[in-house]
Amino acid sequence: MEGTAWEQVQEQCPDVHKIDLLIGLPSFNQSSTIGSVVESILGGLKASLAHASALMINADAGSQDGTPDIVKEAVGNLLPVALVKPVTEGMSAKPFVLNRLSYSGMPAREEAFRSLFAITEQLQAKACVVIDGNVRSVTTEWIDLFARPVLEKGADYVAPLFRRQRYEGSLTNNLIAPLTRSLYGKRVACQTGGGYGFSGKLASFYLEKEFLWEGDAARFGIDSWLTTVAVAEGYQVWQARLGTKIQDTKAGAVDVSMMLAQAVGASYHYMEHYQDVWEKRSGSTAVPEIGQTIEGEVESAAIKVERMVKGFRQGLRDLLPIWEIILAPETLAGVLALGLREDEDFNFPLSLWVQTVYDSAVAYHEKVIHREHLLKSLTPLYLGRTASMVLETRDGGPDDVQRTIEQGCQTFEAMKPYLVERWRFQ
Amino acid sequence: MSEMWQEAMVEAFREMMRRGALFLPKLMAMVTFLLLGLAVGWLVKHVLMRILSAVRFEVLCERMGLTPALAKAGMKQDIPHLIGRLSFWMVFVFFAFMGVDALDLPATANLMSAILGFLPDIFAAILVALLGILLANFSGEAVLIAAVNAQIQGARLIANMVRWGVVIFTGAMVLTQLGIAKEIVIAAFSIIFGGIVLALAIAVGLGGRTIAKEALERRLRREKHDDELTHI
Questions:
Q1: What is the pLDDT of residue B222?
Q2: Which of A162, A254, A268, A392 is the most exposed place for a label (fewest CB within 10 A)?
Q3: DSSP calls for B46-65
Q4: What is the pTM of this model?
């Protein structure tokens, strides 16, 4: 039985007592990428943060391919480094969730973050930067982009901002980011994975709030709630422009309905907790960004819109009794009317989509049906909206997609009173 | 002769009066039990309904799919009312049996002990039936959503098969618990279940061989069937 994360660090690095920067590397069988990630981090430290005292922690979830050894070898004597293994029960102790990884594709991810935050607090580190071990596109600038806003600009949380294909991250762009923006008033892209930067203050806050670490939302949606909690609690949020993300295990390798249930479920879960916060906030403000803007479009992959529309139509045919329970009558009437349209004219209006999202949030809150069923039954509706967006913009440029996403965000904000009213008086 | 006739008459009358005098208290006891049954039943019904209403049991039943399932089966009343009525009649029947037992008739000599002996089986059967209906609805809904999201064309058929499979299984368990035609139920269930499995095996083996082969190949080769979109 391993000791706590802090005990493991003390055992391996007895001379480390106080540091400026903690670098966390969550990993699981990433021997092919972890070496280059470590080299980039070390290069970045040498180039821009040479004066800062730092400690590297490899939070490994039980790799069988020698990932921790590669980390130690790559670091050498350049930096104190410690390996931390999961100590709590984690996912492996619960047979019913064995086959359910979070959409990040990493086991015991929430444990890794919790351990890193605990060590950050113990060492009174000013900043904690976490970089995923499976990202191939980590450059020497990353560590600076995540750490500098915290160490020098007073940021508490630095979220990643990647350059993506025009339709990549459609669930984030069509639902999670606009919902977060309309609820908490911060224009964050809500992109997940790759890396994050935290202040010591925020790490301690995450650590002391037990509710953040309990339940499915904590277990499967840590990449979602890190941002949600930071904006809801009013911490200084920044975004770091990191270029294109290339990673071995793609986030969202699990099926779309499972991913939707985890990511959207986490957003809805924290809506209940932060009701007092989001009911009072209106409008939105941009968050500061760091890093260079890279122009030009990333080559986009083929999108099979017909399959999405087919998925929506099947949902309309088979899931109607469930949608009748979840959606308000006027929303349902709008959704039903979409079934009459030909594939070429298919158009899921933004306002209807926003109503659908708000209705489902209220239904989640009211527990009208089993919550996982509710979230998964939204998949055909989400596919319908995504197909509609692709059809609207596929002949235009990347700016058209961005414009549509921005329109979506504004519609979410404009229709917030609908949510507040239904949430209060349902 | 007339004395003997007179004595017989008096004796018969006296015997009847004696029996009547012995039976009357028992009859009154029965009537009392019936009245008590009505009063206690009414009280239990109302207290139970108040408690169920306070804990929002109706909402819970709605959420668990029990209310819609019973509505589909033609039950118009809501669940708390149903439970209230059931509790009333259970209490009343209990008191009625006590009343019948109080009559001390040879034909109903061990009625009460027999009824009390059967009660645990009835409760167990009701519990099994309730859990079975809940499980059937839950599994049916889960399968329907999963099949629709996987874009399987016969999603509703598959979901209904799962739902009814669980219902039939529950029905067989309830009847077995109650000891009603145990052997017939087990035999019928085995025949039906075995028949369904055999029919499916033949259907897939003969009719859907190519489809099954293609599906397996697709799965094992992990062919990309979805769009290239990264959703998160």
A1: 57
A2: A392
A3: HHHHHHHHHTTHHHHHHHHT
A4: 0.82
